[in-house]
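Supplementary Methods S3. Complex input for the T5A-bound model.
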Amino acid sequence: MREGGAFIALEGGEGAGKSTQARLLAEALRERGVEVKLTREPGGTPGAEAIRGLLLGLDGEGWNLRAEALLFAAARSDHVERLIRPALARGQWVICDRYLDSSRAYQGGGGGLSDQDILALHGIGSQGLLPDLTLLIEVSPKEAERRLTQRDGDVTDRISGRDAAYHARVAAAFARFATEDPARFARIDSNGSREDTHRQIMTAVTPLLAHMA
Ligand code: T5A
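Predicted complex, serialized as structure tokens:
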């Protein structure tokens, strides 16, 4: 692992509980005396938040697939250079709600771009920075829909509103990444309670805590 803080990303489909679990993890780490920077993608810096608005809020046809991938990579580049790397260098732990594997799963698995192309953009934009640990938060499509309907009613953004086949390809891509790289990924079953999911996450984070102690 690099010098400085640890970098943890939470990944998965919409409604899996990533934001909820990112907050709970940040609180638990702070209680243990760890300095935590909680952030999200797309976003995290003023420039990246502006790109978020372009990506998720645009009315009408939206972006073509390659432009979409470039915009996510551009937002990530600013986020990595201005927030993530400086925080890690200060010894802070960065907890990021979505990161590179979302581009690989959505623009790659869902949209059809090659993994090689997504990783090439990441090499240019963010010098290939990878998390120390990626928590893949998994939930059944039915449970995700129940949670999102309860929270948002009929409102969706332009990516989460894509059809079920797209989201099935996204979920399959996430699962494949985790299988291919078990050293970086921990798969978390989030179909149960918030507390149960949080317990699994703390178990996955324990080796990092021990390593940093
Ligand atoms: N995207 C993003 C790309 O296409 N490429 C990229 O490179 C990146 C970075 C981002 C969109 O952009 C796409 C993916 C997305 O479509 P977003 O607004 O950031 O959009 O949305 P999501 O990340 O999808 O976040 P969501 O809020 O939809 O899902 P979360 O964060 O997984 O879920 P969360 O924690 O908000 O929980 C949803 C609801 O369920 C409840 C919560 O209280 C909440 O109401 N809940 C539970 N209820 C019962 N039991 C539990 N265990 C629960 N856990 C949470």
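The longest helix spans residues 65-89. Residues 14-20, 41-42, 56, 72, 98, 102-103, 106-107, 147, 151, 157, 159-160, 190, 193-194, 197 surround T5A (CB under 6 Å).
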